[in-house]
Amino acid sequence: MSANERKDSARRCVFCGSKSNLTREHVLPEWLTEIGLDRGSSVHHSGPLNKVPRQWTSTPFRTTVKMVCATCNNGWLSALEGSAKPILTPLICGQSRRLPDDDQALIATWTCKTALVSLLLSSDEARLGGYGVPPSEYTTLYEQRDRMEPLPLSRYWIGSYAGNGGASIWVTPFVIEVIDAGSPPEFPSGYAITLALGRLLVQPTGACWTSGRRPTLSPGPRSASRTT
Prior knowledge:
Strand order of the largest sheet: 3-2-7-8-9-6
Radius of gyration: 17 Å
Number of helices: 6
Number of domains: 1
Distance between the termini: 45 Å
Order of helices and strands: HEEEEHHEHHHEEEEE
Helix content: 25-40%
Strand content: 15-25%
């Protein structure tokens, strides 16, 4: 990607591609401050490919990125936060409950969105150097925004966290290299995410699809689950 292409990309919404009225999107939403989470510094970890991720801290619930348009920010992203809040709050506070299919999908979608936004804290150069995922991950999530479903080719595990009750996000892109297959791919083959908020722990893995039509996986049967 040329310097001009990077500048043009920085002026577009990462989700819908719009150039109009870019706004600041919170990495971790402000409503989390209403439920008693520790206000100490949040820890973030990101990439690079197949290596130990770098780590930095930021002021929790105040960190924003200016790469999302007003239409997305005030539209489907706001709706996602509003739908996720009553589902996530008891889990973050350590309350055990059953999770029907729709709630599981909503938690997964919210986690995916939050992780993708957190990667935007890295510079354009850093993301191109391995601290990011293909732009198609953002556009695919946008294209299926009305369904409130996580990205295809992803799997999520939800459980109870026994840590200090703060807020942390780890995102590690990875590449699967095949012997004698030539140079490794330009973009990651997939990524692993760990999101810890209070007593809630979500661990997703996803596979990236960078050309042609993204394949789909049969999700298989799901049943209501309980955090432990």
